Known about the structure:
Structural class: alpha/beta
CATH class: Alpha Beta
Shape: globular
Number of domains: 1
Bound molecules: zinc ion
CATH topology: Metallo-beta-lactamase, Chain A
Number of helices: 9
Largest sheet: 7 strands, mixed
Amino acid sequence: MPVYPGAYPDQRVVSTPAVRINRRLTCRRKSCYTFGVSEKLIHEIIPVGMLQCNCSILGDPETHEAIVVDPGDEVERILEIVRAHQLNVRAIVSTHTHIDHVGGLARLHAATKAPVLIHEADLELYRHLDMQAQFLGMRTPVSMRIEDFVKEGDSVRWGGYAARVIHTPGHTPGSISLLVEKRQPPEQANAGRPKPQSAKASAEAHLQAQVVGHAGEAMPTRERGLGPGRLVSGDTLFQGSIGRTDLWGGSMKDILSSIREKLLALPDETLVIPGHGDNTTIGAERAENPYLR
Ligand SMILES: [Zn+2]
Ligand SMILES: [Zn+2]
């Protein structure tokens, strides 16, 4: 299975336009208490590993629950941040299973016991971590058996927050983007709506983090009155670029429809945290991204 046929390891398409300055909306090395989802959300973004994958640590300062997205490497550094905020990691999510986004999954899982979640369409790619490592001339990281999967419309919940799973295939078949939103208070969330009870709910009860399925429901682009969310976009959408599609399972047609139909449907103010490089917004990419013209 040709996983990394290209000579260039960067995950973006190659002709990236000149980097624009003054677009960094959150800081990189210290806590970020920025606009949007909540003034209180802890969101640490640290570039990890050889390919500088942006790993996100998202925490609720009140309940101390957290999730970690894309722990590609440098697990000790991730754990230092988790400890500094006194967070309990409830779930570990990878936006896709390229080695730079999953290299630290097994070690972080061993340290936190938190369930690991990916989209099932990327499981095959994860099983070939050794081939990915070989193509990049890296040592193969420790891997693990992944048994928990998320799909379009699921929510991964921690404390007062939730990340809505948006399936955005194209860079890989199982690429997902995560829309982080503040959860509504329970009394509002349940108003006028029967409590969901299904076999699926009990099947998922073993997960430490609540993963709630919403298949078939329309995805709200904006929670009522809570402001725009922030999008962890993996290697699907970058500042001024899009993910490369020449690797195993990639599709230019799919990535363009994922971005146009699902991500550009979000409000302009939505903050975007890509898998590599600087932050951006949906509005800026709608207006300026040359691949979306
Ligand atoms: Zn990447
Ligand atoms: Zn990738």
